[in-house]
């Protein structure tokens, strides 16, 4: 076992003290001309020197412990880096859109709608930024591929309920559960969130959020390629913006139209709907990301590249 440096120093000093004291005694004993005073002075000098050196040696390890920890340079802390430079930029918002995912992107500033008293939440919105994707596959679906950037404080002013939604989303992002239950969602739909499948937590350039597959409806209905979509719900790190994305997705094992599953037995399907959803979520979670159209990782890459500088 290796002896620490300060321990070795202390051993050497103690040995030195003993030698000096012994030398003082020997010199006194060998000289008939020496006096008791000279002997005492020599012993005291040797002892004092040993004490000072020993105190210095004992102080060395403590000084080493008191050295401040060197901070890690910022450049050594990994950041979320987009794989490709952004090719879409509008009003301080930028991201990378793979041309194979969507051929075009339309950008717009949607003006504020205050709604009316006692009106549903979906009738009001602040001024926000909307990106719509053209030449996107699949087509002919219920939802359109869109990205929404909402100013969070402005939305809360119009609809105070948004504050609770933002808080709930932050709690979900902190817990990172694989089965979080219903996830806060914007824009508001006049329908219910049926399920959450393929749940994954993503960081983007300006914040973090959660992506999942889901479907909304007003009544029991089969999960089909017409209504299924990928969504991302996130908040910027400075809590200034709420980021929402909706991208329709298809899977070859899902029906294009739910009518073929329901058939004539509407009552039986409705009664068995909770079990049907549970089984469907298990099925959706078993599929690989690249078995969907588009590939879920392709959509993830777009989300992770989002940068908001406003």
Quick overview of this protein structure:
With 310 residues, this protein is of the alpha+beta class. It contains 8 helices and 12 strands. The chain has helices at 5-30, 36-65, 152-158, 161-175, 259-262, 266-271, 273-286, 296-304, and strands at 88-90, 93-95, 104-110, 128-134, 146-151, 192-193, 197-204, 207-214, 216-217, 229-236, 241-248, 307-308.
Order of helices and strands: HHEEEEEHHEEEEEEHHHHE
Give the strand line-up of the largest sheet: 3-4-5-11-10-8-7
Distance between the amino and carboxyl termini: 60 Å
Which class do the helix and strand fractions yield? alpha+beta
As a percent range, the share of helical residues equals 25-40%
Radius of gyration over C-alpha positions, nearest whole angstrom: 36 Å
How would you describe the oligomerization state of the chains in this entry? single chain
What sort of overall outline do the alpha carbons produce when their principal axes are compared?
A: globular
β-strand number? 12
Uncertain segments:
1-35, 42-47, 53-79
Put simply, the count of helices is: 8
Number of domains: 2
User: What's the average pLDDT?
Assistant: 81
Report the major sheet.
7 strands, antiparallel
Which strand-content bin applies to the residues? 15-25%
